[in-house]
Design brief:
With 170 residues, the protein is an alpha+beta fold. It has helices at 3-12, 63-70, 107-116, 118-121, 124-133, 135-169, and strands at residues 14-18, 23-25, 33-39, 42-45, 51-54, 59-60, 93-96, 100-106. GO terms for molecular function: calmodulin binding; cAMP binding; cGMP binding.
């Protein structure tokens, strides 16, 4: 990532301490920040109950970055546009397993950074890195693959059952 982007982000980071047992994100609540874990352990619990561990170097609330880029007040041509105020709701719980030292980046600050550097952040390679390096997006992808596999298997079983029934009746 370029130095100007890192500088813009670092200027807006806030140092935080989260207490063991506290929730950083709650299902159905607004995602108001991205949290970069410096020290400590958290767990992310998805809608399906699957738990993903988070620790030093991990991030939670990263879906906010994608959301900000998709709802940016700057279009792809670099022109400002007006977007009605709406926010992103969490579909997971992120809970502290230990006391956690972290840096947070508020949604408003993230929106400002994404509008300043929208051209760079919309680059397909950058978008790919955001999605493929994120535990959250990996978990979402794994869940979708499992659902698709189960659906396909169910359809194949139905087809085999109906095909077998047609043979035995004929």
């Amino acid at each position: 990532m370029d130095d100007p982007i890192l500088d813009a982000i670092c200027e807006r980071l806030r140092q935080k301490t989260y207490i063991k047992g506290s929730n950083v994100l709650s299902r159905g609540c607004l995602i108001e920040k991205m949290v970069f874990i410096v020290r400590g352990k958290m767990e992310s619990i998805g809608e399906n109950g699957i738990k993903d561990p988070l620790s030093e170097g991990d991030v939670c609330g990263e879906e906010l970055l994608t959301w900000c880029l998709e709802h940016s007040s700057v279009n792809r041509d670099g022109k400002k546009i007006r977007i009605p105020a709406q926010r992103l709701l969490s579909n997971r719980i992120v809970r502290c397993l230990t006391n956690v030292e972290a840096f947070s980046l508020r949604a408003a600050d993230l929106e400002e950074v994404t509008s300043l550097f929208s051209r760079f952040l919309r680059n397909p390679r950058v978008q790919g890195a955001i999605r493929y390096e994120s535990p959250y997006w990996r978990s979402v992808a794994a869940t979708r693959i499992q659902v698709a596999w189960r659906y396909r298997k169910k359809c194949l079983n139905r087809a085999n059952t109906s095909h077998s029934a047609a043979r035995s009746s004929g």
